[in-house]
Amino acid sequence: MSGVSSLVKRNVICFFRDRSSVAFSLMAVMIMIILYLLFLRNTLLESNPGEGMDSMMDAWVMAGIIAIIPVTASAGCLQVMVEDRANGRIRDILVTPMSSVQIASGHIVSTFLVSLIMSLIALVICLACLFATGCPMSAEGLLASVVLMLPSSLSGAIIIYAIASFIRSAGAFTGFFTVVSVVIGFLAGIYMPMGTMPEAMRVIGTLLPATQMASLFRNSMAGEALDQAFVGAPAEALDEFRTDMGFDLSIFGFDFDFVSSLCYVVAVSAVFFIIAAVGMRRRRRYQWMKLRSLVLASRIGFFIPA
Questions:
Q1: pTM for the full model?
Q2: Residue 184 CB contacts under 8 Å (≥ 6 apart), including other chains
């Protein structure tokens, strides 16, 4: 396990040593908050007028931001791995005594730690904004939001690592990071409510673990504000609003609850971990075969006179 811990330590240090990557990760949070305050907030409030809706909408957006930070932060951390592959440094890791599962675990754990740290920083920023506006939030909701950071960060680390492990150039990874940063905000229902999406887009969004985590974060961070905003309102109106705004998710007639959403996120993460481990094993086998062929070629060249 010393090799895994060394790989984890090295990846975490490489990420936080690059101050620009850390700054841009935090800047992404600030940009989304600014975009919401300048453009989206008034539009959402005009579509959903009522007393207490401003606090609810603030918490709704902040919860969505918290849900996608693990995805963007994981991509930023895994840039180190992609650069290693592009520069050839990955060969030094593949020829170590570590198994394929250990190598994949080292990258995932380091990405998870970076994602968790950045998510906690983003949570502090978002909570500061909510408390400044007087948004109601219970202690249970705050504690649940902190606990949900763990599966959210781990899921983002595993899934993004599994995808990034097939990218071989820094340019391709930059394009992938740009697309993910933009698309994830729409599919998770941050820039537009789930109820306004086309059916196909809503189905794809619901299948994403980030969207499932966004639903859980919304219930923990914006649940109390939602209840206060709908005091005295018909139960049908509340149920419809919860579905349209992504508090409650359903697909093909199946309604997700807290337990089923967490189980789904864990199951999808497990599948992607297996994909990542199998891919690492194939790359490592290829690297060993390439090394053996080079050694054999050098021996043949040594014994055969020119």
A1: 0.85
A2: 68, 71, 72, 208, 210
